[in-house]
Amino acid sequence: MPAQLRRLLPLILLAAAWPALAAGSDVIGENLLWLALIIIAARLFAPLAQRIGFPAVLGELLLGVLLGNLSLLGIHFFDSIAADPIIRFMAELGVIILLLQIGLETRLGDLVSVGVRASLVGCVGIIVPFSLGAFVVGPMLLPGLDFNAYLFLGATLSATSVGITGRVFRDLGKLKMPEAQIVLGAAVIDDVLGLVILAVVSSLVQAGSVSVGQVSWIIAEAVLFLGGSIAIGRAIAPRLLAWASRLDSSHSMLFSLVLVAGLFMAWLAHAIGLAPIIGAFAAGLLFEPVFLRHFETPKLVQEVEPLLPAAVNPETQQKIRDVLAKHTSHQHEHMIEPIGYFFVPVFFVLTGMQVDLTALADPKVVAVALGVTLAAVVGKLVAGFAAGRGKNPWLVGWGMVPRGEVGLIFAMVGKQLGVMNESMFSVIVIMVILTTLITPPVLTVLLRRAGGRSSAVNPENR
Predict the structure, then answer these.
(1) Contact indicator for 424, 149 with CB cutoff of 8 Å
(2) Three-state SS for 426?
(3) Beta carbons of 174 and 180 less than 8 angstroms apart
(4) Which contacts qualify for 252-257: CB closer than 8 Å, 24 or more apart?
(5) pLDDT digits (tens, 9 = 90+) for 146-155
(6) pLDDT tens sequence across 83-127
(7) Taking Cα atoms as reference points, which of 229, 227, 197 lies closest to residue 214?
(8) CA–CA separation, 184 vs 102, rounded Å?
(9) 298 — phi, psi (to 5°)?
């Protein structure tokens, strides 16, 4: 084949495939193409971020920012992705899967052991940012607005995106660090209290007042759901899993039970007005490795164990058996991993696509946004010092900083209720962008500095 023809071959193939692309230009066809592009681009961007020392999640977020703003360069192909209900559902499913994975890798005992500290961090992480937003930086930097707007600003600053922080801890194998457990517990508390604040502020805007009974009921719902689901779930999980294993002890049964539990608990949380991710996280806490002993061991373990040579000294044999036992006890986590590879990047790319870079065009808006961002960071860093002695306050504080999709949800509610004008909404979007993008690299540096100490405390960090 002549050299010139070889160079033209890709264009010839693309031209030949054009009728097929046109035929697939309906909603289903577009979604299939978008998903393919999002997943492969996320996989390419993630290692680029890791090569320069940042976690994979930052690469996925930046990819989303890039795709969401290509229209500034006259490329409008991706404009409708962020508003597509199917893609949005898959993104929501992605963060549910991520929180299910984090729950599976978290031991309830570890979470309980830091419960008091996590509660203190969570409460301070709500009170300080809310107060700064509603009573300090709001009136100071955005004068002349209705007081309800300042309340919404405070509510937005009190939010925490557990998905972004949890992903960084997980990517670096630090989920079992005490600081990570405190952040996870505090973030769940922040989600609950943040939703309470959002419900109260929304009621104030819509009805002009809110009763103590309404607030008490919202709090009771959250406490009953979390406490009840974990207590009841832990009581019935061993019996349910033992019964299911007698019916079918295969890997497919175990996989189905884990996934169904995550989806059901996410639905239940949503049904009572909580964030679905709280339910998914609670579901993950129900599957202790000891409950899975009745199910088949992984194929790898089945094949390797009989091959252990008798000539190997007992110490080496025991090390190999320990590795195999670890694979057995964590097989339910490994089963969910491939689903995460598919859905989780969709969530982070779509979160990045919510960012409108045109908001950065107004210097006054940017200046106000930087002040609000400073308050948002300081409020959560103060919360880190509530973790107490022996814990790294900077690690805990920065773990609470990202607002991510939670901050955007709060801002969207305020905009829909007519409380926020476009300028204030742009300020909040910029704050969400900055707290979402700066946290992963900062957290990565702090975790690597703490790596020696954390690995000494917990050698099983993965």
Answers:
(1) yes
(2) helix
(3) yes
(4) 253/295, 254/292, 254/295, 254/296, 254/331, 254/332, 254/335, 255/332, 255/335, 255/336
(5) 888 888 888 8
(6) 788 888 888 888 888 888 877 777 777 667 667 888 888 889 889
(7) 197
(8) 9
(9) -60, 150
